[in-house]
Amino acid sequence: MNKTLVSVVAVFGLALATAAQAADMPPIGKAKCGSCHAVDRKMVGPAWKDVAKKYKGDAKAASKIAASITKGGEFGWKMGKMPARGLGASDADIKTLAGFIAGLK
Ligand code: HEC
């Protein structure tokens, strides 16, 4: 009985760890955005998963998210202001990151 419970917990824990890895922030995100954002929890700015939810079902999600990142400012999260391009992301970085964020579930 106890053994079964332990192995169920172990398998579940492993599944969680794998899921967390799958949604890991790309290195460029860690460098240019990671001081204010995380994928699945609020920090200075919103969790990127919550941003993905905001744009869910929008065919232009990735380009709208890219426009927000490029411009910076306020997007209705009431968390303050985001600096344009975060900590200096290039157009190519922003494209990569917007695609990553739009693809989160
Ligand atoms: C200095 C902190 C800071 C940095 C660095 C930063 N952000 Fe933000 N970000 C914020 C804040 C604060 C908000 C929420 C603004 C508001 O209240 O509407 C935000 C909002 C966002 C949103 C939501 C846009 C929307 O349309 O709702 C996205 C996407 C985002 N950030 C992506 C990024 C990316 C990608 C980077 C790195 C290139 C980055 N951020 C760097 C603070 C930051």
Your description of this structure?
This protein has one domain: Cytochrome c-like domain (Cytochrome Bc1 Complex, Chain D, domain 2), CATH 1.10.760.10. The chain is built from five helices and no strands. The chain has 105 residues and is an all-alpha fold. It starts with a helix and ends with a helix. Helix 4 crosses helix 5. Bound molecules: heme C. Heme C binds next to helix 3, helix 4 and helix 5.
Characteristic key phrases:
105 residues; mainly alpha; Cytochrome Bc1 Complex, Chain D, domain 2; 54% helix; binds heme C
Write the layout of secondary structure elements.
Blueprint: H1 2-22, H2 27-32, H3 48-54, H4 61-71, H5 91-102
Heteromolecules bound: heme C
Shape: globular
Biggest pleated sheet: none
User: Termini separation (Å)?
Assistant: 35 Å
Query: In the residues, how many domains can be counted?
Result: 1
Q: Based on the structure given, which CATH architecture is correct?
A: Orthogonal Bundle
What sequence of helices (H) and strands (E) makes up the elements?
A: HHHHH
CATH class: Mainly Alpha
Share of helical residues: 40-55%
Strand content: under 5%
The CATH superfamily name is: Cytochrome c-like domain
| DSSP strand count | 0
| Secondary structural class | mainly alpha
Oligomer: single chain
Radius of gyration: 16 Å
Average pLDDT, rounded to a whole number, is 88
| CATH topology descriptor | Cytochrome Bc1 Complex, Chain D, domain 2
Unreliable residue stretches? none
**Number of contiguous helices:** 5
